[in-house]
Amino acid sequence: MRANWRQEPCCWWKRVAFYLLGLLLTCLGVAVILQTDWGLDAWNGVFAGLAACTPLSLGGWSMIVQGSFWVIAALLCRRAQWLCVIPIALKGLFLDLSKAAVAHWAIPPGFWPGCTYFLLGYLLVALGTGIYVSTGFAKMPIDGLMLALAERFCWQVQRARLAIELCGFAVLLFVQGPFGGGTILITLTIGQVVAAASTFSQKWLFAGGCTDTAGSGTRAIEEDIHGDRRI
Q1: For the range 51-59, what are the long-range contacts, defined as Cβ-Cβ under 8 Å and sequence gap of 24 or more?
Q2: 125-141, pLDDT tens digit by residue?
């Protein structure tokens, strides 16, 4: 089935455009949430905490940590997913660009302005992740690490992701990254929201007649979210 959309150049470029748009929206959402005091999800919070106490940027730490995930997954599976290098570099670049773009945003004090900006950022993160996942292109290394842990230790994918997130929480607290009510909210709901966004973006992506080669991948992700799939 992959050969079908590769024979349609317009569909291929459409996927590339959606992939880049999804990553950019995700990073912009992270940057917007970072402007509030509601807290980020565990690992993006780790990047922000490390960036605050070292000379390296948010994007730089993203590349280092995601690169570490990629190496660990490669060692566990005894094979390297070289295409994962692309989203590592792109996310690092987009995070720094997005942070610079919103650096001068002045959020009025008070609960509702902060809540509004947090929800805007969360919507961008969920929608962006759903869009880039729906293309079927290379995922972030944290997803590869999740699958590698599940395969290596015969865990449910949901359990593997929980282990990664718990480690992220521990590191987040250690580096004193941004932690708040939003951190808990994102952790508990992001899977379901991304699944919905991915389904929506697939309808958008394939509206022009392109062959749906990412559908099986999205269905697998939805199964992983609900913990029904074992590796």
Answers
A1: 52/176, 52/177, 53/175, 53/176, 57/95, 57/96, 57/99, 58/34, 58/95, 58/96, 58/99, 59/91, 59/92, 59/93, 59/94, 59/95, 59/96, 59/99
A2: 989 988 888 887 877 88
